[in-house]
Amino acid sequence: MADTPEMEDLVRTDDPGFGQVLACVFGVQEHESRTYLVLLEYPGSTVAELAEELDRDRSNVNRSLMTLLEKGLADRQRRLLDPGGYVYQYTATPLPEAKTMLHDALDEWVELVHGRIDEFGDE
């Protein structure tokens, strides 16, 4: 967790939404958090389906999905098409698992901050 605009927004918000927390903790953009939340509602979606649901360009949705994959917040499966070829279908990491990941990341960060506080002035 770095000092980012998302973190500043989160700290200054009395009642942050799950998407804001997700963006802050995992260092993702708001549109990537939104992609995750939509993917929770529509598991097994393709890039084209998500682009339509999110009202975003397919290339932007694809970049968001790549970020979510890198952060462990999504999974993809290749589905073969009848006339040949294939398409990727994306599924969000289940919410309980994502919550555990958020708690773990925050716990690590809090431990780091407590360590910095305790070390201060020891030089």
Automatic annotation (TrEMBL):
Coiled coil: none
SUPFAM superfamilies to which the protein is assigned, alphabetical: Winged helix' DNA-binding domain
InterPro entries in UniProt: ArsR-like_HTH, Tscrpt_reg_TrmB_N, WH-like_DNA-bd_sf, WH_DNA-bd_sf
Record-annotated Transcription regulator TrmB N-terminal domain positions: 22-87
Protein name: TrmB family transcriptional regulator
Lineage: Archaea, Methanobacteriati, Methanobacteriota, Stenosarchaea group, Halobacteria
